[in-house]
Target: Nitrogenase iron-molybdenum cofactor biosynthesis protein NifE
Amino acid sequence: MSSLSAKIKDAFDEPACDKNRGKDAKPRKEGCSKSLTPGAAAGGCAFDGAKIVLQPITDVAHLVHAPLACEGNSWDNRGAVSSGPTLWRTSFTTDLTELDLVMGQGERKLFKAIREIKHTYAPPAIFVYSTCVTALIGDDIEAVCKRATEKFGLAVVPINAPGLAGSKNLGNKLAAEALLDHVIGTVEPDDPGPYDINILGEFNLSGEFWLVKPLLDRLGIRVRACIPGDARYRDIASAHRARAAMMVCSTALISLARKMEERWDIPFFEGSFYGISDTSQALRNLVRLLVRKGADPEILERTETLIAQQEAIAWKKLESYRQRLQGKRVLLNTGGVKSWSVVHALMEIGIEIVGTSVKKSTVQDKERIKQVLKHDKHMFESMAARELYAMLSEHRADIMLSGGRTQFIALKAKTPWLDINQERQHPYAGYDGMVELVRQIDLAIHNPIWSQVRQPAPWDCQPDLIGELPCTRNETAYLFDEFACATAHEC
Model:
């Protein structure tokens, strides 16, 4: 079995997954994989998934070994941000041509590209991504990376996740395997401490982790590595010396958390920084794990004091929105950790959840939704565009929270919409993030534009058909004033 095939099989045979663990011996051996159908990777291929997990490592040069179009398709496809290095914002590709492929020049061109990046930018590491084209022609990126590491004296890491291998989620897992095989554990930190933690599956979208880190700083907790949001190569390389870990997005990186626990005895839990209660519970769980690993128990009392202070401040800020949003109905068309964490956060303010998508959610995610909603009748695996449109046009929801791909369904239905996925412009994590989320929902729902667009268009008023009560305003007013036909009963 090839190394890639072995990695794929290992990635799907995940003991930490309840669904796979509950199978009989033979199905469990086959893992969770299933045959792809045409168009199954439309939501993102394995290469795209690997870039999503690794590109937020900000001081690394990310080199795509492929024709130019592969890099152009995936570069900067998430709203992650950096507090320092900007090298990750530079696009690197070997830009293979038909002549390179025919003449077998791919590996030589890759080595030259690595050398050029090393001499021009001197990064601590270069990540080299395989793609469909280079996988099909058989370029051995692992051999090239090994030779480049020896030659240039820096870490050159092969990311063997070509798009044809499978879905975006598989790419997430293969990226985690690359970190385990080539990065984590390669650097020993100078100052390990009893309050070091890892945050896994946090992408720092719109800088939202920066709303949480000050809370950890006040407790004396150091984030040894946030993987991958606003990460540095050396931090990830020394992440094996953390004392505890929090898993934010288990759909993507549950295998990374489990294997780090097995190899380096780093206990982890799955939590969320969305919502007041979930943020408080995440802080409690973190300090409990640290105490279990030898930290001073006094941190438990300090944590409760901090939580009480922050919750009081947040609830005071939210009070002005409660009456305006009480009973408002929200449709969530997202997945993963947001399918349950955002549900809980919104219900805290009195908002009603009329539906939440669980298409990308794990078994654990679905169980949490059932606990929060007390039933599963509002859970849906997927909803066709026409069904979403029907639900919104019939006013069964006051607002839809989703990603950018479904925003036009809401807009066509003349329903408020708010971006909750990776392209969003506002951070929603932590106590301040919850206040910002509620503020944005309030602004969207009460925007006066919705009452205007739901009115009949001026040209739908036909004075010649309503008999004795013609419109009397001039043509300009008739076209632009919503009261142009106020004298006509039927308008």
Observations:
- The chain has four domains: 36-182, 196-314, 326-423, 455-491.
